[in-house]
Design brief:
Elements: E1 10-11, E2 17-18, E3 25-26, E4 30-32, H1 37-50, E5 54-57, E6 72-75, E7 82-86, E8 91-95, H2 100-109, E9 112-113, H3 125-130, E10 147-153, E11 159-163, H4 173-182, E12 191-198, E13 200-201, E14 204-213, H5 214-222, E15 229-234, E16 240-249, H6 258-282, H7 287-296, E17 301-306, H8 307-311, E18 319-327, H9 331-344, E19 353-358, E20 373-381, H10 388-400, E21 404-405, H11 415-421, H12 425-435, H13 444-450
Parallel strand pairs: 4-6, 5-6
Antiparallel strand pairs: 1-2, 2-3, 7-8, 8-12, 9-13, 10-11, 10-12, 14-16, 14-17, 15-16, 15-19, 18-20, 18-21, 19-20
The structure holds flavin-adenine dinucleotide (FAD).
Length: about 450
Amino acid sequence: MGSLRAAGAEISPDGTWTNFSRRHSVRPRRVAAPSDLDGLRRVLKEAAAEGSRVRVVGSGHSYNDVAIAPETQVSLRHLNRILEVDLDRARLTVQGGASLREIRTELHRHQLAFANMGDIDHQSIAGALSTGTHGTGLTAPAFASQVVALELMLADGSVVRCGAGDGEDARGQEEADLFDAARVSLGALGIIVSVTIQAVPAYNLRRTDAVISRDQALTLLADPPPTGHVGLYFMPYIDQVLMWTAERTGDPVDKPSALGEWFRDVVKVNHGLQAMGVVARRAPRLVPALSRAFARGVRPETTVDTWDKVFLRPLFVRHDAFEFAVGQADGPDCVRQLMSAVEDAKVPAAFPCETRIAPAESAWLHPSYGRTSTWVGAAIQAPGIDVDGAWVEAQRACVAVGGRPHWGKWHTLGADELRRLYPRWDDFTALRAALDPDGRFGSPAIDRILGRI
Ligand SMILES: Cc1cc2nc3c(=O)[nH]c(=O)nc-3n(C[C@H](O)[C@H](O)[C@H](O)COP(=O)(O)OP(=O)(O)OC[C@H]3O[C@@H](n4cnc5c(N)ncnc54)[C@H](O)[C@@H]3O)c2cc1C
């Protein structure tokens, strides 16, 4: 049984870097972790002199190979400071290497909050932005829309700033384009060295957990609540779907004891899923029974907690993930096809498959660009269970309706296919060619996804 740790990347004694899902590893030719911008600039200069390509890594929580850096790998783990807190405008400016957890701690200090977040907070803010990391709720923005300005270090070592242009910060078209391109840019335009976040006043959420049938869940997906947050966990082979919903409330925190929470989140969920993975590999026919037992263990309950405690679920168990953003109307059918693909291929998948909803985003390469979306997700204990055939089928179903993959999760799409899915693709690639004419920020994954410069 693998370890139950939240670590993203793991670095072995011989310098091999391996990502969260343990599917992708590399031994970079050169590794750098500068502690200031001059140091970062020097790394770029030396890379240019050697003709070496540069990939920034965050915490390694992408399931796919977007962070794989065979040549020069740069980490911003020492560029993780809180640079400025503007309480009048509820804005925090942080360095690109700051983790969501470090930012969350600072937000708490000032009774502020993220407007929304995903399931974990181990990622770096720049990594989370760069792949379009999102949460759930029709009015709940992804990180890309919670950012009002950022600074990018380009391949020549210069730093450019771009922002949302609100209030006194007027901007021209060039800056507007850079902002819309850079917020979700996979490290391909430059290195995000600082980010200004628009926070909101801290809030509590009333969370309800329940188990519903597949039909009920698909009906809910077809017509989701206009406000609040909704997460649906479909499980292959069984009719039960685990559902959580949350709404803002002025009520005080009201939840189980810390021990009760630990038992629910760590023992039942993480150790439960870990054990199910072991059994699923050895005795696949037991998967439906295991999943039913897991669903039976979920107690319907309503609790009130602070925003972050409701959003975050400590998911340590090693897994791999698939997630496509499809237009809202196509959500239910894509979930149906994903479940059929896994079930028809008899994949021993004993893991909840998270489906979420999200508003339209304006960053050019955000998978929810321009449309309200359903995020159709699946996950599996990793490594060791062969799911690729089923996920290729599910990918085909999502792409057929214009679905776009999460940039940090499993997919097999290349630049030609992706170009058809994004209306501003050519604008992005033109800007990339102008900002990084030598392809300094390329990598094998970027060559495949965006094309080689
Ligand atoms: C357990 C788990 C739960 C997750 N939950 C969610 C969720 O709820 N919602 C969701 O949408 N996603 C989720 N993800 C996916 C995750 O948020 C993204 O993959 C995210 O990119 C990881 O951030 P990171 O810091 O680990 O970046 P990495 O994985 O290290 O890097 C990702 C990309 O960001 C680029 N990058 C990193 N730093 C910089 C920088 N300073 N400048 C420019 N580019 C940079 C890298 O080059 C790479 O292309 C989850 C992943 C895991 C493992």
